[in-house]
Amino acid sequence: MASLSDAQWKKLQEFWVKNVEPNLTKHGQEVLVRMFVNHKSTLEYFPKFRHLTTEAEMRSNEDIRKHGNTVFTALGKLVKLKGNVEGDLRSMADSHANKHKIHLENFDIISKVIDNYFHESFPGDYGADVQDYMKATLALIVQTLTKLYKELGK
């Protein structure tokens, strides 16, 4: 997978800072709710959320809000690292593989949900170029997690 140039990273980071960073909790929550509604099997990995059966319950759940913030805070950090993500993903891979038992395909699922959400939410700023840069970043994250899972024997 080709790495992004400095100019491409800069443009992706500008998109992130302008559009996403001002409200990480809102965007993270929305992505999680969409993932849980459209990919119900993903709820099984979250004991705190399994009992939620409706979109309204999910939207009003404080734990989903908090976890959405955690997810998007981490993603923002990875965007700012310009592709140097392995060190930051190592502990996440360990916890997600061993403690939470999250299967790798779920990272592909959330990546697609993030892409679709950004496409719908920021049509003026999430043009084809920024979309390509975000997809490349998300693919790099999944690729790195796959490598780290293999190192963990998962």
Task: Give an overview of the whole structure.
It contains seven helices and no strands. The chain is mainly alpha-helical and 154 residues long. The chain has a single domain (6-152), classed as Globin-like, CATH 1.10.490. The mean pLDDT is 94. One of its GO terms (cellular component) is sarcoplasm. Belongs to the globin family. GO terms for molecular function: heme binding; metal ion binding; oxidoreductase activity; oxygen binding; oxygen carrier activity. Pfam families: Globin (PF00042).
Write the layout of secondary structure elements.
Elements: H1 6-20, H2 24-38, H3 55-59, H4 62-80, H5 86-99, H6 105-121, H7 128-151
Pfam families: Globin
Family: Belongs to the globin family.
Main location: cytoplasm
Notable features of this structure?
single chain; 154 residues; mainly alpha; Globin-like
Radius of gyration: 15 Å
Query: What's the CATH architecture?
Result: Orthogonal Bundle
Helix content: over 70%
The assigned structural class equals: mainly alpha
Protein name: Myoglobin
Keywords: Cytoplasm, Heme, Iron, Metal-binding, Muscle protein, Oxidoreductase, Oxygen transport, Transport
GO molecular function: heme binding; metal ion binding; oxidoreductase activity; oxygen binding; oxygen carrier activity
Organism: Protopterus annectens
